[in-house]
Amino acid sequence: MTTDYLVCASQRSGSTLLVESLAATGVAGRPQEFFQYFPSSSQAPQPREWFAGVTDPELLALLDPLDPGTVDSRDAEQWLADLRGGGRTANGVWGGKLMWNQTSLLITRTRTASGSLRTAIRSLFDGADPVYVHVHRPDVVSQAVSMWRAVQTRVWRDDPDVAEGTDDGAVYRAEGIAHLAAVLLEQQRSWRQWFTSEGIEPLEIDFPTLVADPAKATARVLEAIGQDPTLAPAPPLKPQSNARSAEWVARYRADAAQNGYPV
C-alpha cells in the first residue's frame, strides 16, 4: 500500500533537508514546493514581497527589485495534472511541501469555492487526506536570521562551490529580522491552530531533532507512508548556519530585549 504525504512548514525550518532526503530514497515521491509560485509571475515570493507594507528605504535597498516574471497560463486542470505527475515516483507515492503563506494560492488554484484549506488539499488526492508531516523550528530567532540572510543573497541552500567562511554580502539589520520573525511566528501559529481545528495529528518533526539525525527523521516519514525506513539516506545537504549566523542571533536577541522585537 502506498500513501501520499504533505510536509507542512515555514521557511528556514529544515523542511528542505527533509524533503530532499525523502526524494533521495526514490520511493517517497518527488516532494517539491509546488505551491509557492504566483500565477501572475510564475515565481516564488521575491525578497521585497516578504516586506509588503515596509517603507524603510534603507532596508528595501538591501533587497533585489521586483522582477515581473511571466504569467502562468495553465488552467486548473493542467496545473493539477502537472502537480500530480511532478510529485509522484514510479511506485505511486506522491510527496509535496506546503508553507502556510502558500495556502491561499493552493485554494485559489484548486478553485475551492468554500475557501477550505482541507478541501483544497483533499482535491489533490481525489478526496482523501495525505499523511501530514509538520516540520517546525522552535527557535524563531535563528530561523529569522537564516531567512534574512537568504532573502538578501537569494541563496536558499548550501552551495558547495562557495568556500566556507566566505562573506555572502548580507548585511545585519535588526528591523528586517524582526519583520521576518513576526511573519514566521504567525505561520507557525496558523499551522498549529489549523491542525487543532481540523482534528489532525500530524507527524511532528522539529528542527533540532531533524538536524541532529536527518536519517532518523526521514525513516519516520518513510514508515508513516508505508515504505522501508532503512532506505533513509545520509544527509544530502549541509546546514547553512555558521559563526556569522550565531553572531547575528546573539546580536538580534540583545536588540530585541532593548526594542521589544519578536523572539
UniProtKB/TrEMBL annotation:
Family membership: Belongs to the Stf0 sulfotransferase family.
Catalysed reaction, written as an equation: alpha,alpha-trehalose + 3'-phosphoadenylyl sulfate = 2-O-sulfo-alpha,alpha-trehalose + adenosine 3',5'-bisphosphate + H(+)
Keyword Repeat: no
The species this protein was found in: Nocardia alba
Active site (record annotation): 33
Record function comment: Catalyzes the sulfuryl group transfer from 3'-phosphoadenosine-5'-phosphosulfate (PAPS) to trehalose, leading to trehalose-2-sulfate (T2S).
Transferase among keywords: yes
InterPro entries: P-loop_NTPase (IPR027417), Stf0 (IPR015124), Sulfotransferase_Stf0_dom (IPR024628)
Short name of one Pfam family: Sulphotransf
Keywords, ordered alphabetically: Carbohydrate metabolism, Transferase
Name of the protein: Trehalose 2-sulfotransferase
Higher taxonomy: Bacteria, Bacillati, Actinomycetota, Actinomycetes, Mycobacteriales
Pathway where this protein functions: Glycolipid metabolism
